[in-house]
Predict the structure.
Amino acid sequence: MAVGGVSRHPEGGPASQQDMRRQNLAVVLGTIAGQGPLTGLSRADVAGLTGLTRAAVSSLVDELIGRGALTEAETAPSGRVGRPGRALAVSDRGPAGLGLEVGVTHLGACVVDLRGEPRVWRRVEQANAGRPAGEVLAEVAALGAEAQAEAAGLGLRVEGRVLAVPGVVPSAEPGLVEHAPNLGWHAVRPADHWPDPDAVPEPENEANLGALAEYWQAEHDAETFVHVSAEAGIGAALIVDGQLFRGARGFAGELGHIPVHPDGLPCPCGSRGCLEQYAGEAAVLREAGLAGAGDPVALLAERAGAGDPAALRALDRAGRALGLALASAVNLIDPDALVLGGAYAELADWLLPAVRAELAARVTVRPWPPGALRPSALGRRGALLGAALLTTRQLIADPTRLPLA
Amino acid sequence: MAVGGVSRHPEGGPASQQDMRRQNLAVVLGTIAGQGPLTGLSRADVAGLTGLTRAAVSSLVDELIGRGALTEAETAPSGRVGRPGRALAVSDRGPAGLGLEVGVTHLGACVVDLRGEPRVWRRVEQANAGRPAGEVLAEVAALGAEAQAEAAGLGLRVEGRVLAVPGVVPSAEPGLVEHAPNLGWHAVRPADHWPDPDAVPEPENEANLGALAEYWQAEHDAETFVHVSAEAGIGAALIVDGQLFRGARGFAGELGHIPVHPDGLPCPCGSRGCLEQYAGEAAVLREAGLAGAGDPVALLAERAGAGDPAALRALDRAGRALGLALASAVNLIDPDALVLGGAYAELADWLLPAVRAELAARVTVRPWPPGALRPSALGRRGALLGAALLTTRQLIADPTRLPLA
DNA sequence: ACTTGTTTGTCAGGGCAGAAAACAAATTAG
DNA sequence: CTAATTTGTTTTCTGCCCTGACAAACAAGT
């Protein structure tokens, strides 16, 4: 592009005073939100933490209160000398995010407030594979409308909607679910089937949302990690420096088709020896001698817990294959942590030893700290939670999106 | 980009007016630099391209001229109606970057001006493996001093120094070369051996610098790509959205130890079937029946060009192993492009077919466009060039680092 | 109870950076 | 030579944060 070879885009566009204000609003709100609801920070505290002046913080806080993002709590008796500060807290009765989810065996909807707390939670078990997309979307829309109504009763106003789907959403065309093999969807646009045109959600891959939820909610401090979730297919999501990494076209994280045994089992994708043939849900269940009845993952966990040799063997084999693939990921990405989410989280007790062993044997140049591999705390709830949190996180990152009321 | 800009840390710290100024200086300078030296942009052009006002651009340009980053060229007869603009150009006689390189078989030094043009270039063939680090560093320092003196004669003032090394520089401890196996270095700090304490360079991994040079100098428009370079070890560097991705600890890109044949050849690292055992320089030369005399890479290219069956077989095998490893990388990262740099660039004619075939067979869910795999235009010069460019790019990204003169 | 010292939140003044608008300068078209 | 057009600068204005000062609200000591 540049013959002389120089800067493509230094930092995006030019900066204006509005950008400065926007960022400082985000810094103040983010600081208060990051401290958790326990400690009520005062304006002076925020000024000390951020480096802004007390006067500036006051102005910013005033605007954030005006937008409904912050509230002034009771003046707590601090015990220290001097005039006590007025405690600031992220509002639990204003802007909110609505998360929706279409899974293979369930629908879900939830509402979180700006603090990140889930306030409404709905989950309906229901087989959706192969059904017309329009029908399924109408049902999840109804579920979402219910959740939104219940949230309104709590004083929450939904400011954004995100739909978690087990499929690919190319970054070139947001709004399009290009392909969701386990649902049987092809080129589905939720907007085309949504009952209320003013409440259309933005679709996003569920593995990505699960990873983001893990990042936002979990207690650890990994800024760069790989989140693996099994849901029929094996999907990985990469969080890099606290940002979701989607790849150039939005297809990053296809862990399921990493070749683990180059000349091994054929895969429907046309290649051979893909991870999915060894650690995918179907492969593990087949190996363990289980049919897909009810909740097969829970059944498998039960059998393994009871010491069933076939189940243990299947999980060990899956763990080794997974470890092999993750060794490649670790060598390439050097993440802070590896997180097993989705269905893997429930099977972690039996998967982790094999994964750890394989990582220890394969990642030798820079030994992999065993503690950096751990199951997700959120498990299968992550995707729906992440969908709802996405809206509130975006609002915190740019509070000017909030109406001034 | 539905999911963007939502990290736990809004954007780092609060924004000040100085930050705004800094960014706008970078935007203006970057815009002029990005257009190449051919078209001389006027202040009005820059205003139109960036969205800033003409008045603001004038003020910013004045400062950039004062810092020696820009010069006002002759007023070219544009032919169009209206007062002609004064052409602005990035200065070729002011701030510059010094790049240094310690390779296994050579030393190098070069100076680039702010336009990114190399103005001084030195390369000395010399075996450095196993020699005391202090000696080698003293020699490359002398070479750098020579280059800097010659650059001074061209009116160039070195503002920063970077040393390319074939080793690991952990992000936790900049300034430390933790391990450079092919040189026999362990825990070497260039600062401890440098003759002139005011001219100590910052060490950086050569594969990373090669990738950055490729990004900055090449004509393509890939913003996210994997740059593979062979230099005894196999190192990959990841450029993500135009930024070098180092991983959590600075160890990302260990492509050489990705397992390609899980139960294959043992590797000194302790694992089995690492890529390096199949596509590393030593392995390929052994397979081709070549001893490491003179410039073995050039010799191998010559033999392959002459149709030598052993050479062709070795390169085909290496290409297939490399393709297998890159398939994993593509499935994980989904880059815009794959670039073969370093010694691979010179062997591309015979490697690429096998790599392409393997990628086509392995990356099936999202077929890999064959054109997105290509040899580096810079080849083995990339690392040294990148070392010098790193300084000038940092100056363009933050012109306030330049002295006001 | 009262004073002192400390911390908090706000207010007024100043500086800085970009936006908006007006103006002088330099060129082409007729 | 005049009109039109584009450029670059100057002037005025606005927005934002910073500095410094001040009133308010508390604890501790007398």
